[in-house]
Design a protein that fits this description.
The protein is an alpha+beta fold. The chain contains 13 helices and 24 strands. Strand 13 and strand 14 form a beta hairpin. The structure holds glycyl-adenosine-5'-phosphate.
Length: 435
């Protein structure tokens, strides 16, 4: 893998974004824990998505459905039958592969032997467990492999309680689980991950129009949050790639260090899911349009993104190295909305004389935004530390501050420094954040 990728993975560990899971026990393959700044970044990715999908719109409402779910849901959705990957084992070295991901399906990429693969078996990716004290088929439950089904099975509840009418959407953020055969590339593909999905219910003849609308909207979301457009592309799926429920899917792809890959899928799921759940449950999952006296099963357009995968793309796009006064610096040029800390309060020296005022400034800012506070090491090293975790602004409290009650704001990207009265500091930073 490229240097850049390794540098980002190292930075994640070193600065507390992402740790390998269960490390003190030797690690738990391809599971990850999000550290003090990682949890903030991941939360901010989710908040930015929720803001654009729910907060700034009046046609989409939220939902938080359960992760544990009965087999009936997955029977109806088609996942029990179709949510499979073709699995092959190398008889020589025992490595396991997804057949559809092999460049050459007759040669093992690990040991190089030819024609050593077993027959492909369809392997279902859903995690199964048991509810209650008795293990058995009556107690079987699944961990959801996508959040989407929670929205479909609650379609009627949401329709009745929110009084929305098509076109309208239900949005959800939450963990999903897939027993991936080949997890890897850091947090790109893991067995436990966070999804951000929205099901948009539309009149049947408006499916194509809304599919195009959501492709554009979702592409723009990434560029608005700082991923350069040339590192993104929309790629329509070929017919043989489509999921069992989709008549058309386009992926928003990102240029990862190993090449183009999926960031988000936008699918036209038609009336597949509501029809299936209607037939299996006996509930009518329809909309009755009083204006036209028509009853119909809405079609669904689904933008489905991964929060953890998106977080990695934002980190890769933001990572840069430059030089200040002959000294190399690593800087994460994260959009301020995504940055774990918006501001770091740094007293110029650790002298007791500056600490009370610096702490006063910190307390003043904390109700408005996530702040860091650091009084160890030289000011230069503390700036570098904040640059590395993407903090857009540092506020320095110096000896003049004791007299003029003003502080210096230093900008991560331009390095510009401006003096601002403490009384107007919160407003100034909030303005920058909103802008
Ligand atoms: N409901 C549709 C659906 O789940 P998907 O393309 O399988 O579609 C949507 O998943 C997004 O979820 C992907 O684009 C990706 O960002 C994320 N995702 C899927 N599997 C993942 C995994 N194993 N690890 C991390 N993210 C994953």
């Amino acid at each position: 893998m490229t240097d850049r990728f390794e540098q980002v993975v190292n930075l994640c560990k070193r600065r507390g974004f992402v740790y390998p899971s269960a490390e003190i026990y030797g690690g738990f393959r391809s599971a990850y824990d999000y550290g003090p700044v990682g949890v903030l970044l991941l939360k901010n990715v989710q908040e930015a998505w929720w803001r654009s999908m729910v907060q700034l719109r009046d046609d989409i409402v939220g939902l938080d459905a359960s992760i544990l779910s009965p087999p009936a849901i997955w029977e109806a959705s088609g996942h029990l039958q179709n949510f499979t990957d073709p699995l092959v084992d190398c008889r020589n070295c025992k490595e396991r592969y997804r057949l559809d991901q092999l460049d050459d399906p007759s040669t093992c990429p690990n040991c190089g032997k030819k024609d050593t693969f077993t027959e492909a078996r369809q392997f279902n990716l859903m995690f199964k467990t048991y509810a209650g004290p008795v293990e058995g088929s009556g107690a079987e439950v699944y961990l959801r492999p996508e959040t989407a089904q929670g929205m479909f099975v609650n379609f009627k509840n949401v329709l009745e309680t929110s009084r929305k009418r098509p076109p309208f959407g239900i949005a959800q953020i939450g963990k999903s689980f897939r027993n991936e055969i080949t997890p890897g590339n850091f947090i790109f593909r893991t067995r436990e991950f966070v999804q951000m999905e929205m099901e948009y219910f539309v009149p049947p003849d408006e499916g194509v129009k809304w599919f195009e609308y959501w492709c554009d909207e979702r592409f723009r979301w990434y560029t608005d949050l700082g991923i350069p457009a040339e590192q993104l592309r929309l790629r329509p799926h070929d017919a043989d790639e489509l999921s069992h429920y989709s008549t058309g899917t386009s992926d928003v792809e990102f240029l990862y260090p190993w090449g183009w890959g999926e960031l988000e899928g936008i699918a036209n799921r038609t009336d597949y899911d509501l029809t299936q759940h209607g037939n299996h449950s006996g509930e009518r999952l329809e909309y009755f349009d009083q204006a036209t006296n028509e009853r119909y099963i809405p079609h669904v357009i689904e933008p489905a993104a991964g929060a953890t995968r998106t977080m990695m793309a934002f980190l890769l796009a933001a990572y840069s190295e430059d030089e200040i006064e002959g000294e190399a610096r690593t800087v994460l040029k994260l959009h301020p909305r995504l940055a774990p800390y918006k501001v770091a309060v740094l007293p110029l020296s650790k002298k007791d004389t500056l600490t009370p005022l610096a702490r006063e400034v910190l307390r003043l800012l904390q109700p408005h935004m996530m702040c860091d506070y650091d009084e160890t090491q030289s000011i230069g090293r503390r700036y570098r530390r904040q640059d590395e975790i993407g903090t857009p602004w540092c506020v320095t409290v110096d000896f003049d501050s004791l007299d003029d009650r003003a502080v210096t704001i230093r900008d991560r990207d331009t390095l510009a420094q401006v003096r601002v009265p403490i009384d107007s500091l919160a407003n100034e930073l909030r303005g920058r954040l909103e802008g």
